[in-house]
């Protein structure tokens, strides 16, 4: 099967050119000046549109157990929503429960995802029980294509790891080339602040933000960086939200340390004012780290320009308002943590291009090319080039859309971006050469997505 994408503007991280793109079966076969390639079995007209490598969301949580419930998107509904928004690869997190092994966890996550995803997917591993066995099993995970391990300095009693445990896991990562991903918030101090707030009757959702101050993200980020320095492990800070944390990352990078960071659209566009919405509406915006005062946003955009923030992922972790967020009425600490967003990442970051915050190429770099390199998928993913998987988004930069629960495809009963007006939108999406979204219809199917066994990070020096 030969499909020709005609007359579009191909946007890669490395540059932009007017070209036709020939797809043969699952792969990109050729790029050439308009009119040179053909004939083909099918044609996609891309005049006036961008032709991008499919988005790679390196941080999602489908069907994730959290706070006595599960995130609302299944691997099928979540990856279908991803496809709608131009994301053709997700990397989700397998979650080790305390007292269980990493390998049985990986098996369990394969059972959940295999045969159900609409686009390709990989896994990171959440390590919540550091012991001799799980440290040994990190090696088997790496062999199985899962070479990035998330640890938590937050959530004591659940996912929390002590500095000693983090050090041991980092030593293992250092010896194997694996990446340690860090949820960097000082959970011990935060739990004190949470207990104080509750004992004083401060129970509203905004307290979630007030009890997790940005200084405690900055402190944990600095500590993680020092532990990584001592051990020589590569470190990737997930969902960075605060100026203080960004300053720590920038300083480490200036010194040449293998430290990387991602931020998420919610930290670029939403703020603690959303958490403070009355009538428990603020619960829709509860995630950790919390939404920050607006002043942090300019620093995050700057970090994206300077590459101190290299990736934008969503941390998509949807909980319905009804029955799930509502678990925390009267006690903000019981609100399940997470914000939905897998469908909107490409569009939201395109607003950064429209507003002049980042260039067109940088948009593609932070949403596709860099996550591909960071997590060992390049050049199979993350680039429009011969030999790459034909994961392609034809993007109309001029179309207008309004985000909201009535039109989104995520299995969640609210939108964090309700009513937001967007310039640009996805026209056509190909996943490994198959059209999965076109002209407002979904043409993909459950099980089309394949597991991606990943190489080590391609950024390590
Ligand atoms: O609030 C969040 N971020 N929920 C998902 C779990 C995590 O820490 O990434
Ligand atoms: Zn986290
Ligand atoms: Zn997360």
Question: Can you describe this structure?
Answer:
The mean pLDDT is 98. A hairpin with a 2-residue loop joins strand 18 and strand 19 (441-442). The chain has helices at residues 75-84, 102-113, 132-143, 163-176, 187-199, 206-210, 214-231, 243-254, 265-269, 272-275, 295-306, 345-354, 360-374, and strands spanning 2-12, 15-24, 27-32, 42-45, 50-53, 55-60, 65-66, 69-70, 87-95, 120-126, 148-152, 179-183, 235-237, 259-263, 311-312, 392-402, 421-431, 434-438, 441-442. 31% of the residues lie in helices and 24% in strands. Helix 3 (132-143) packs parallel to helix 4 (163-176), helix 4 (163-176) crosses helix 7 and helix 7 (214-231) runs parallel beside helix 8 (243-254). With 461 residues, the chain is of the alpha/beta class. The longest helix has 18 residues, at 214-231. The chain starts with a strand and ends in a 19-residue tail after the last strand. It binds N-(aminocarbonyl)-beta-alanine and zinc ion (2 copies).
| Fraction in helix | 25-40%
Q: Indicate the mean pLDDT.
A: 98
For the secondary structure, the number of strands is 19
Name the beta content range.
15-25%
Measured between the Cα atoms of the first and last residue, the distance is 41 Å
| Unreliable runs | none
Radius of gyration over C-alpha positions, nearest whole angstrom: 21 Å
Topology:
Elements (H helix, E strand, L loop, with lengths): L1 E11 L2 E10 L2 E6 L9 E4 L4 E4 L1 E6 L4 E2 L2 E2 L4 H10 L2 E9 L6 H12 L6 E7 L5 H12 L4 E5 L10 H14 L2 E5 L3 H13 L6 H5 L3 H18 L3 E3 L5 H12 L4 E5 L1 H5 L2 H4 L19 H12 L4 E2 L32 H10 L5 H15 L17 E11 L18 E11 L2 E5 L2 E2 L19
Parallel strand pairs: 1-4, 1-5, 6-9, 9-10, 10-11, 11-12, 12-13, 13-14, 14-15
Antiparallel strand pairs: 1-2, 2-3, 5-16, 7-8, 16-17, 17-18, 18-19
Helix pairs in contact: 3-4, 4-7, 7-8
